[in-house]
Amino acid sequence: MFDFLSDYDILGAFWTTVQLALLSAVGSLIWGTLLAAMRVGPVPLMRGFGTAYVNLVRNIPLTVIILFTSLGLYQTLGISLGAKGVEDINFRLAVLGLIVYTSAFVCEALRSGINTVPVGQAEAARAIGLSFSQVLWLVVLPQAFRSTVGPLTNVLIALTKNTTVAAAIGVAEAAFLMKEMIENEAQLLLISAIFAFGFVVLTLPTGLILGWVGKKVAVKR
Amino acid sequence: MSSVLYDAQGPRAKRRNVLFTVVFLAALMALLWWVYSTLEEKGQLAWPLWEPFFTGTEAWSTYIWPGLQNTLKAAALAMIIALPLGAFFGIARLSEHAWIRVPAAIVVEFFRAIPVLILMIFGLALFAEYTNVSSDDRPLYAVVTGLVLYNASVLAEIVRAGILALPKGQSEAAMAIGLRKGQEMRLILLPQAVTAMLPAIVSQMVVIVKDTALGGAVLTFPELLSSANTMSGYYGANVIASFTVVAVIFIALNFALTSFASWLERRLRRAKKSTGAVVGVDDAEIAGTAGTGTGGTT
């Protein structure tokens, strides 16, 4: 009953899933932080750009973005992100799509963290004579970072699940392999159980551990 | 303006802001120019590629409208089926009896931890193998099954958060006038919780609409995104034009839903008659991810 499993590289597929998730997480953290900085900063044009970006990207399905990277960017405009070979190109395009989409949610998570710090905190810090950088480093940011752990965890888990969308452009990750296996083997329930279990293993501990950390470090108000 | 991050600005800060604005504008213009010249170079801005969407109704009536109808149909079906299921599991998770509470919690956490696409692929194979649903209908059934399984568990968390957000005095008062547990839930808690949950439910609708696109890309379900694919084949590889039109429709639809949800939330927070309990738009996103334990809070 389990013989056919050795014909497929299930661990390899999940490794691709993990790689997609980690690379996109790093990328969207960087771009999302820049976006958040624009949205909370004093320059109106940057604020407008950040707001427009988040509102547009959040309302487009991730599937549309990822399919567009392949059909639009690569096949129509010839942008291959410096990769050779179809597999590499699709992988990089999927990471790009995931970064574009996820950074909007990272931006909102960071912004909500900053918004939890009451204005009175900064006013009190200025009143006792702290300079601007001292206000930021000693008073505001420590509180803001601590309350972003929870929301960022949610974004990371959602990102892990969203990597399956890369199957739409043929990246050989878990959902792609699952579809292939179901089509070739008459073992629907067993195969589904394996992949479901794989994702539970990937997402549940992350949520439990980081959720616990988030509650631990959060500022009680 | 003053915020927690910076003070009201003086002349030097204002000059610096102007400099930032100019540099940023230059960078933005350079980016737009690069996009424009790339599109121009590949001939994607040629009028014949965009014409179908602006002249005549063929593109709209043959491709876009049927696709949009399928998107809306799948989303509406999923929401209608998932709501009662979600309410059932949400209430079950609040039960006093561990033998009801624990299995409900396991089911909810399990389906929140699994990607919707996996559930849809499973649904497609399930209907093919164990039912005699015709192969034309199977993608719709599979998409709705996947969406229902996932969103019912998310809605369960929203329902639970909605009931927990009510002031304790409500259930105490119900007990004091001698209502039974079922009556308390049915007559006192649920009616108020449903109002409190409305914003979160509407913004969950956005998630459902977005996820229907998965069905188009992987399960050959003929919804809006897959109609973009067919169109670009029919109108001579106008991928950029087709995707732009489809993306704009998705943005308009979801933006309307999001704005409606925020409006509901503001209205509920203002209302004097209510208990003031609201499960907000942001809480829905929190409930949508597995393993975060308590779900939304207000």
Automatic annotation (TrEMBL), chain A:
Positions of transmembrane segments: 12-35, 56-77, 89-107, 127-145, 157-176, 188-213
ABC transmembrane type-1 domain segment(s):
14-210
Alphabetically list the UniProt keywords.
Answer: Amino-acid transport, Cell membrane, Membrane, Transmembrane, Transmembrane helix, Transport
Topology in the membrane? Multi-pass membrane protein
Its localization reads: Cell membrane
- GO cellular component: a single term: ATP-binding cassette (ABC) transporter complex
Protein family per UniProt: Belongs to the binding-protein-dependent transport system permease family. HisMQ subfamily.
Q: What is this protein called?
A: Amino acid ABC transporter permease
UniProt organism field: Streptomyces tuirus
TrEMBL record, chain B:
Among InterPro entries, the record links this protein to: AA_ABC_transptr_permease_3TM (IPR010065), ArtM/GltK/GlnP/TcyL/YhdX-like (IPR043429), MetI-like (IPR000515), MetI-like_sf (IPR035906)
The portions of this protein that span the membrane are: 18-36, 74-92, 104-128, 140-166, 187-209, 239-264
User: Where is the protein situated, by its record's location annotation?
Assistant: Cell membrane
Q: Does the keyword Membrane apply?
A: yes
Return one GO MF term: transmembrane transporter activity
Give the range the annotation lists for the signal sequence: none
- One cellular-component annotation, GO: ATP-binding cassette (ABC) transporter complex
Biological process terms from the Gene Ontology for this record are: amino acid transport
Q: Which residues form the ABC transmembrane type-1 domain?
A: 68-261
Key word Cell membrane present in the record?
A: yes
The domain of life for this entry's organism is Bacteria
- PANTHER family referenced in this protein's UniProt entry, alphabetically: AMINO ACID ABC TRANSPORTER PERMEASE, MEMBRANE COMPONENT OF AMINO ACID ABC TRANSPORTER
Question: What is the name listed in the Swiss-Prot or TrEMBL entry for this protein?
Answer: Amino acid ABC transporter permease
Q: Which organism is it from?
A: Streptomyces tuirus
